[in-house]
Amino acid sequence: MIFLLVLGAEILVLVPDLRTDGLHGFQSPTVLDLSARPVMVFDLDEKHEPLGVLYLGGNADLNVLYDPCVETVRFIPVGSSRVEHIKQVQYPSF
Prior knowledge:
Layout lengths: L1 H12 L3 E3 L2 E3 L3 H4 L5 E7 L7 E8 L3 E6 L4 E6 L3 E5 L9
Antiparallel strand pairs: 1-2, 3-4, 3-7, 4-5, 5-6
């Protein structure tokens, strides 16, 4: 019962901790098999610059990505992009 309370508090109250190197948390990443892998997304049409984001998942059509720099979720078509794993998302220098 205590385990469920701690897990529920971590997910519902604290929310997942998405950092530039992925998902952090006391129990949720391991127990619920949640992940957020840092990746670099390259546009195959060369319309956009490469983008460092966290890969949350996807399906055959779309990749679901979270940009920790601007705190937004992006949906990118699988066929128009290439994804490479990196160690950490780098914030752009202005």
